[in-house]
Amino acid sequence: MPPTGKSIREDLAxxxxxxxxxxxxxxxxxxxxxLRSFLAVKLPGSERTPIEGLLRESLSNISKLxxxxxxxxxxxxxxxxxxxxxxxxxxxxxxxxxxxLADEGLDAMRQRKLRIDHAIIKGTKLLxxxxxLEAQRNFRAAVDEYVDEKGLFPLIASRLxxxxxxxxxxxxxxxxxxxxxxxxxxxxxxxxxxSKGEEWATVERLLLxxxxxxxxxxxxxxxxxLAASRLGHWDLARSAAxxxxxxxxxxxxxxxxxxxxxxxAEGSA
Length: 269
Description:
By secondary structure, the protein is mostly helical. It is built from 13 helices and no strands.
């Protein structure tokens, strides 16, 4: 649909609103769009004159923005008849501001990942010194920076398990189940914490709580079956092992659990 005087005025109103909200990139983009639209349509003088006034106001507004001042310290004056140059200039300016924002986002991401790394390193050092309280403070600081580093939770859990802090590891294994239940390392760590720390009840509880979110995963069901069998919850062990083997008949631990279930049933018959 070709632009009209009304659509140009609407874009300039949006540019003014973006300027008021300090949305610098959008303000510049909308001014550029308005200039391009202004060039694409022949307007009668009754419409053209007020739009020229709005363009003058919009260019004055964006000239006050820090991201614009960076490239145009003296501002962008509106000169009648120079709309073609102004359109090309504001389009280029918007692209530069967008690139700056992308760079800032990349730098912020790098800084965040560095903070995670430093917190993990410091927490691991404190853990080796036997200072669980301060180690946890650093590990939780790393978790506070989490965005999409799904390996973070199994990593912290592994550090705690290696240090013999099995109960503390479950805090991170729970998050690991929530964030990436398909990660096979989680189930290795759950079994380690369950067997070495005698924490099978916690393993079973975490898996049952996570079940609705994760759906059916063979390793998940196998680990639940193992925990349930260690606790003597034979009905749950049977159903979980059966579900695991239905999805993956090669799971040896699930086979052993099912054999134990059958042996227990025969013994109690």
